[in-house]
Amino acid sequence: MSSIGHLCGGDLLLENGGLQVISGAAETRQRLLRRLLTNPGDYIWQPEYGVGLQSMVGEVVVPAVMHAAIRGQVLKDPGVDSGHSVDVTVSAADNGLCLCHISYVDADTGQQQKLDFSA
């Protein structure tokens, strides 16, 4: 399966005069970012989709609740092998950003994958 390459908050990616198409591990990473940064309820046909991590930054959040929300949404992605554990680490950076590190197993290749981002 392939998708149009697009990172949340950015422009559509272009390649060779057309829209960039991605697949495999890159497609899964982009889907995960979109899922984690989308607020629950933003997709009216899938109200349980999303974590809304950006809305959590600056709020009082119980780390175990944040980890569980992230882990639960990551496991819903078809590119993630739900038979393996998903490891989540969230920490605060000196500049006020929230750093998120996620480790999961790719469903197609069986290889360990990492997703690191800040919000």
Secondary-structure blueprint:
Layout: E1 2-4, E2 14-15, E3 18-19, E4 21-23, H1 24-37, H2 53-56, H3 63-75, E5 87-92, E6 98-105, E7 112-118
Specify the oligomeric state. Answer: single chain
CA-based gyration radius: 15 Å
Question: Structural class, please?
Answer: alpha+beta
Q: Number of helical segments? A: 3
User: Helical content, roughly?
Assistant: 25-40%
Order of helices and strands: EEEEHHHEEE
CATH topology: Nuclear Transport Factor 2, Chain: A
Principal-axes shape call: globular
- The tally of structural domains comes to 1
Rounded to the nearest angstrom, the distance between the terminal CA atoms is 28 Å
Please describe what this structure looks like.
With 119 residues, the chain is of the alpha+beta class. It has a single domain, classed as Nuclear Transport Factor 2, Chain: A (Roll). The protein is 26% helix and 26% strand. It is globular.
Keywords:
26% helix; single chain; 7 strands; Nuclear Transport Factor 2, Chain: A; two-stranded antiparallel sheet; alpha+beta; 119 residues; three-stranded antiparallel β-sheet
